[in-house]
Amino acid sequence: MRNGVTIGQAAAFVGVTVKTVRHYHKLGLVTEPERDSAGYRRYGSAELLRLVQVRTLAAAGVPLADIEPLLDADADQFATALAEVGRQLTERIEELTARRDTLHRLSDGNRALLPDRAVAMLERMPSLGFPEAEVAATREGWVLARALVPDGFDDYLTDVEHAIEDPDFVALLRRGVEAAAWAPDDPRNEDLANEMIEHYLANPAHLRIVTGMQARTEAATRYQLIAHHGHEPTSTAGVLGALVETKLRAAGIHIPR
Q1: Could you tell me which residue ranges the HTH merR-type domain spans (predicted)?
Q2: Which long-range contacts (CB under 8 A, 24 or more apart) does 175-182 make?
């Protein structure tokens, strides 16, 4: 064994660190040599070969826990086990590719969290007269809605796509944005809420924007989280929203409480 090499030399020859060699010993993947008469552990050709085999399999993606059975397997078992490792690696590659694509989409924060058709509407909002703050609030609300009611979000987007082609509806929404500058007790809130109710009741397709997703929730909690996101109850937006909901309920429209 005096012709063997030290653990540091063995690690360097194989292309790993001393810490890695010790870890292989701890897992029982490579037998730790006995000490020689001088008190040194010397790695001979058998230990170096085993280190190379373990290092190669680990670098190929084989979990350390699976390496020992592989090294002791016959040719058929070895081929079958490697095929399974290959399948697992393919799954990981697909998952990592999807993550990479998501990272690319993060360069446009909207596209990472919303479908392209939603992004297109957000990009169109400024040309319809909505300020950037309202676009940002809409974005947040849609991200939340998609997460909480995923099976209803596509239908919701379809309703919004159709509704924003109606100038009267867009004008009404803009007035709602402008109302944020009013005092919560401003009497104009009542008048605007009445106009909104009249419009919704006269246009059932537009009313679905308010009622569509909440019908798919199993409890009122999700609806409340979506509908009132970013609105303090005592703010003008909160007061106006509450007025609209109250008037819709009075008209026989189901709105969760």
Answers
A1: 6-73
A2: 176/237, 176/240, 177/130, 177/131, 177/134, 179/236, 179/237, 179/240, 180/235, 180/236, 180/237, 181/236, 182/236
Q: Has residue 23 been placed in a domain?
A: yes
Q: Which of 72, 100, 129 is the last residue of a domain?
A: 72
Q: pLDDT band for position 257 (50/70/90)?
A: low
Contact residues for 203 (Cβ-Cβ < 8 A; gap 6+): 166, 169
For residues 134 and 145, state if they share a domain.
yes
Residue 184 lies in a domain: yes
**Could you list the residue range(s) of the whole structural domain that residue 176 is in?**
116-251
Helix (H, G, I), strand (E, B) or coil at 162: helix
Choose among 212, 172, 203, 197: nearest CA to 249: 197
Q: Are 156 and 212 in contact (CB under 8 A)?
A: yes
- Is 126 a domain residue? yes
Number of domains within the chain: 3
Of 88, 108, 128, which marks where a domain is finished? 108
The pLDDT tens digits for 16-33 are 999 999 999 999 999 999
